[in-house]
Automatic annotation (TrEMBL):
Protein name in the entry: 5'-nucleotidase
Provenance organism: Citrus sinensis (Sweet orange)
Lineage, highest ranks first: Eukaryota, Viridiplantae, Streptophyta, Embryophyta, Tracheophyta
Length: 207
């Protein structure tokens, strides 16, 4: 898996990828977040609850999507993904840190978690103390694949609630998802039920 990912990254460099091209591609892409995502992020940010976004893709593209499609940055959101490095002319020259792929996302949950960069192409973001994640004993895990349940393996938690989003081939996969996740939502469901769940959990904690 790491060899395949490494070759893919190499082709991106060889192909002369620039961050201007990525910005244009994101601008032209029909990308939409689930309804309620922004509200969820805002709710968690107000309460200083950290959010980790896991992806075997590219952190820089995720950040650009957030910038262009959400038009807001969240100080509590950290990304666990592959980070690109660009030269002064905006050309991709390398990748930073360990390779993140679909089978090892949990191994790097803490050492690869990085805050959102303010501008596309930034080589360094603000310093981030992972203690805000390490000291958390409760985890709310959201995923659309059963393998996503492993994302919390690198965290030392006492309680975990898992929410699965089953979007395709529902009839054949529903039983497996129900057995694996604590809660399952179907058909690209919006995030409002999760917002309500988080609100209830925070309310109970306050009491």
């Amino acid at each position: 898996m790491e060899e395949w990912w490494g070759k893919t990254h190499g082709l991106l460099i060889e192909g002369g990828l620039t961050y201007d091209t990525i910005k244009k591609s994101v601008s032209n892409a029909l990308i939409a977040f689930r309804d309620g995502v922004v509200k969820l992020f805002e709710f968690l940010e107000e309460r200083d609850i950290p959010v980790l976004i896991f992806s075997a893709g590219l952190a820089d593209i995720i950040e650009e999507v957030l910038r262009q499609k959400v038009h807001k940055s969240f100080k509590n959101v950290k990304i666990v993904s592959n980070r690109m490095v660009f030269d002064k002319d905006g050309h991709l020259v390398s990748f930073k840190g360990k390779t993140i792929h679909s089978l090892n996302k949990n191994e790097h949950a803490l050492d690869m978690a990085a805050p959102l960069h303010e501008h596309f192409g930034d080589t360094d973001g603000p310093n981030y103390d992972n203690a805000s994640v390490k000291n958390r004993t409760n985890v709310l895990l959201l995923g659309d694949h059963i393998g996503d349940l492993g994302m919390s393996d690198g965290l030392k938690y006492e309680t975990r609630i898992s929410v699965g989003f089953l979007n395709d081939n529902i009839e054949n996969n529903l039983d497996n998802y129900r057995n694996a996740f604590d809660i399952v939502y179907l058909n690209d469901a919006p995030m409002w039920e999760v917002v309500e769940l988080v609100s209830q959990l925070c309310s109970n904690e306050a009491q």
